[in-house]
Amino acid sequence: MTLTLHRGSTPLLVSMPHVGTQIPEALRPAFVERALATEDTDWFLDRLYGFARGLGASLLVPQMSRYVIDLNRPSDNQPMYPGQNNTELCPTRAFTGEPLYRPGCAPNAQEIGTRVERHWQPYHDALQQELQRIRAEHGHAVLFDAHSIKGELPWLFDGALPDLNLGTVSGTSCAPSLRDGLAAVLGAQSRFSFVIDGRFKGGYITRQYGRPTQGVHAVQLEKSWRTYMDEAPPYRWDDARAAELTPLLRGLVQAMIDWRPA
Hints:
The protein has six helices and seven strands. With 262 residues, the chain is of the alpha/beta class. It has a single domain (3-258), classed as Aminopeptidase. Strand 5, helix 4 (176-187) and strand 6 (194-196) form a beta-alpha-beta unit. The longest helix has 30 residues, at 109-138.
């Protein structure tokens, strides 16, 4: 299996498409040595959101690294942010802009198709089926796409990201009342900086599955690593910082569980 799915009892599904760190042995010789450390992983999110399981949320967690295939990109490889630096469906560059593959070893169209079939499609099949199950049981579904990233990456964006970056595709991927409710949770605290629909408005998963008129409401949260871990190798979890962040994340998750369409 390339993923694990925990089925919960509430309307919420938490997706963590970039938490995986595995690179299959057969593919490893093609990558540069640095790439094998999978530095652009959304580190420790399954640990950070471990509490969500106890609250009744469903959790979908992949095993493969985003360097193998990016589950938050469309399978036709269209860029998420036209006019800006982007990483591809099967990324060839790290977030620093440096190559991931040895010369001449980047995946061709056939290899990309194989990765889509083996890794991308099963994740999206599981995601869609779980959303359908939740909607059938509860009348609606909330999809929370969870991410994290280094706070400063000049190849991808200018300056430093806010601590928390909530994306609703400019208000189109969920009901306004859900967006407003999450904004209120963020606004009720002053420890962490935040923005709504800034640089990270929502990737493919939020855009593809957020269909409020069809009863599926999707939001993305991109966190800066500095809020819960060390941003320099070896990327260690920080107990003190994580303990400060967790109550806010719990508040956001609980708000998504408790929310009901008007």
